[in-house]
Design brief:
By secondary structure, this protein is of the alpha/beta class. It is built from eleven helices and ten strands. The relative contact order is 0.19. The site of D-glutamic acid has 16 residues, from helix 3.
């Protein structure tokens, strides 16, 4: 991870955050809660979502373009809010970067390794994240005495984007996906996709009280806070009145993004701007 270039970066420089679309707003929401003075530049790749069914090469190329886009804003750090991009592209992005870049997979893995008591951890995520085995690799690098069970749940993303958060259809699909994880007696389940914290109550009800749900979004915000504090780069004061604290960019359908965003972030996202990300 590169050192922050203090010449350019100020404490009040923004944090860049990106995702394949709207899901990364669950990470933004946690960052807003935990470090409310920070400025945020968010990019959602709404033209090219989903990443979860694409190849590592494609997701890495998309992620590199987005990092180039975010760097224009003199961001002091970048958060890869997308689990799929974190699993597939984080190592490549970090190697090429002179500012810190953090993903959501490592923080989620660390907490899961910490909270499990019986050493049986489940991960639900996109096909790409499960196929990458990144959660397993990180967890096993921390604790070798654990077994990780991955389950891809590809229908959860469209269900959440359709707004079916508390719905019999979502309930039925969740029961089918989660049945095998219940059978193998996991005690910890990682919500390894940006959208899943939005159906946390459904997943929690099906898994039961004995299973601890880990939300990597929460842990990532905490890690970001610690990273910035450790480098004395937390923004000390709220941004000046009239300055735009939160700015949102997408690659398509800005209005649809704003509608969804306002349903999950209660700060009132007034607008989002569409950009041609292929130019970066
Ligand atoms: N943001 C993605 C993730 O967390 C889910 C949506 C997608 O497949 O692009 O893996």
């Amino acid at each position: 991870m590169g050192e922050i270039n203090i010449e350019l970066m100020q404490k009040d420089s923004p944090i860049g955050i990106f995702d394949s679309g709207v899901g990364g707003l669950t990470v933004v929401r946690e960052i807003m809660r935990q470090i409310p003075n920070e400025k945020i530049i968010y990019f959602g790749d709404t033209a090219r979502v989903p990443y979860g069914s694409k190849s590592q090469e494609t997701v890495t190329r998309y992620s590199e373009q987005i990092v180039r886009f975010l760097r224009q804003f003199n961001v002091k750090t970048i958060v890869v809010a997308c689990n799929t991009a974190s699993a597939y592209a984080l190592d490549t992005l970090e190697e090429a970067s002179d500012i810190p870049i953090i993903g959501v997979v490592k923080p989620g893995a660390r907490v899961a390794a910490d909270v499990t008591r019986n050493g049986r951890i489940g991960v639900i995520a996109t096909e790409a994240t499960i196929g990458s085995r990144m959660y397993s690799k990180y967890i096993q690098s921390i604790s070798s005495n654990v077994t990780i069970y991955g389950k891809a749940c590809p229908l959860f993303v469209p269900l959440v984007e359709e707004g079916l958060l508390e719905d019999p259809v979502t309930d039925e699909i969740a029961r089918r996906y989660l049945a095998e994880l219940i059978d193998i007696d996991i005690d910890t389940l990682i919500l390894g996709c940006t959208h899943y914290p939005l159906i946390r109550s459904t997943v929690g009800r099906i898994m039961g009280d004995r299973v601890t749900l880990v939300n990597p979004a929460y842990e990532t915000a905490l890690e970001l806070k610690q990273l910035l504090a450790g480098r004395n780069m937390l923004n000390d004061a709220p941004p000046k009145l009239g300055s735009e604290q939160y700015r949102f960019f997408v690659s398509d359908k800005a209005e649809k993004f704003v509608r969804f965003a306002n349903s999950i972030i209660k700060y009132g996202i007034l607008s989002a701007k569409a950009v041609n990300i292929e130019e970066y």
